[in-house]
Amino acid sequence: MVLKANFSDFKLECGTDEAGRGCLAGPVTAAAVILREKFTNELLNDSKQLTEVKRNLLKPLIELESLSFGVAHIFQEKIDSINILNASILAMHKSIDQLHHAPEFIIVDGNKFKPYKKIPFETIVKGDGKYMSIAAASILAKTYRDEYMNKIHKEFPMYNWKQNKGYPTKEHREAIKKYGITKYHRKSFRLLAEQLKFDL
After folding, report:
1. Among the four 49, 75, 86, 140, which has the fewest Cβ within 10 Å?
2. Where do the RNase H type-2 domain residues begin and end (predicted)?
3. Residue 109, annotated ligand binder?
4. Does 18 count as an annotated binding residue?
5. Nearest-10 crossing angle of helices 132-153, 52-65
6. Is residue 146 included in any domain, yes or no?
7. What is the structure's pLDDT at 200?
8. Residue 15: how many other CB atoms lie within 10 Å
């Protein structure tokens, strides 16, 4: 499926998406991207459809060829205090804050968003597989978050975040069972099926 360039008739349309919403550890990361008018790239797609190699190949291209982009992490303490949905939307807002050009219209992956500075917006379910700017944002959110998880993996290698990126894999849950939790774990999440509370 060929991705569409724009949803609205505005020139400065920004796409935004997040990564890491379902993870047990680490931040939720969002990106916002305004692409140049004639931007095309046949590799570009929803980050989940791409290999890590392709995402890492596209990341510098998107940064170089976009009109403007921003990336923001919202960390586990904030996720625990405001919940993951609010944290995801906050991450999107903060990534839009970083754009050098104020967007005239915002398209959002998913079905939940809160108004940003009275700028009109549209939520689009599976938007990262439909619109280029959302796909580009999904790639930046994913690659920046993966870089962060690779970095904290060195501090706590037993959870293998380099591989699972904080998602609830069997291996990650087994490590939590064996070693307990770290400062990077989201305490408001159900970290183990049989255990709702930890002795902290």
Report:
1. 49
2. 11-200
3. yes
4. yes
5. 120
6. yes
7. 45
8. 31
